[in-house]
């Protein structure tokens, strides 16, 4: 790799791999420029979709400490580098691929771990981070409400029991 332009391209791709939470490799053969533009928009603000050269991308991934299967680098390749929520970008890719079968998800990387195409599809089926956090907060709030009601029920039940005992004693005392 003697050419400085290739060295710069590898350095840029290495930086993108290192600074991304996730990267998804796709095959885009048969997509028009307009479709690629639509795909870039559907990925959201936290993802960057770039057409890359296979050899340079493989070298950059290795330099970033990521081991990817050689089969991922067959055919024309584009990479979605995700810096935000990987679920949102995976959903964008999955939904776009449903409408445009020419887009093929090959595999990817999440936090340095290689993922297959099926694992990326499973990632797309997850709910977003915000939704999961909201569900967790709701569950925690619900459990706190249940605990408060339980703690409140014990003293009130005790008071009702004592009142019932007093009433029973008063009846028995009044009858004798």
From TrEMBL:
Entry-linked NCBIfam families: PRK00099.1-1 (NF000955)
Gene that this polypeptide is encoded by: rplJ
Family: Belongs to the universal ribosomal protein uL10 family.
Gene Ontology biological-process annotations: translation
PANTHER family: 39S RIBOSOMAL PROTEIN L10, MITOCHONDRIAL
GO function term, MF aspect, one: large ribosomal subunit rRNA binding
Its biological purpose: Forms part of the ribosomal stalk, playing a central role in the interaction of the ribosome with GTP-bound translation factors.
Subunit structure: Part of the ribosomal stalk of the 50S ribosomal subunit. The N-terminus interacts with L11 and the large rRNA to form the base of the stalk. The C-terminus forms an elongated spine to which L12 dimers bind in a sequential fashion forming a multimeric L10(L12)X complex.
Organism for this UniProt entry: Streptomyces chromofuscus
Protein's recorded name: Large ribosomal subunit protein uL10
Keywords: Ribonucleoprotein, Ribosomal protein, RNA-binding, rRNA-binding
UniProt-listed Pfam families: Ribosomal_L10 (PF00466)
Keyword RNA-binding: yes
């Amino acid at each position: 790799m003697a050419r400085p332009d290739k060295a710069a391209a590898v350095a840029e791709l290495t930086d993108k791999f290192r600074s991304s939470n996730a990267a998804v490799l796709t095959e885009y053969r048969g997509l028009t420029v307009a479709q690629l533009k639509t795909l870039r928009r559907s990925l959201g603000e936290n993802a960057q979709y770039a057409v890359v050269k296979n050899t340079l991308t493989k070298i950059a991934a290795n330099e970033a400490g990521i081991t990817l299967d050689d089969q991922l680098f067959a055919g024309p390749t584009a990479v979605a580098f995700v810096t935000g929520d990987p679920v949102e970008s995976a959903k964008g890719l999955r939904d776009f691929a449903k409408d445009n079968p020419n887009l093929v998800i090959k595999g990817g990387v999440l936090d340095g771990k290689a993922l297959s195409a099926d694992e990326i599809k499973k990632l797309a089926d997850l709910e977003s981070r915000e939704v999961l956090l909201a569900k967790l907060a709701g569950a925690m709030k619900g459990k706190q409400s249940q605990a408060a009601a339980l703690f409140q029920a014990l003293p009130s039940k005790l008071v009702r029991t004592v009142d019932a005992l007093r009433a029973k004693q008063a009846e028995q005392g009044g009858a004798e």
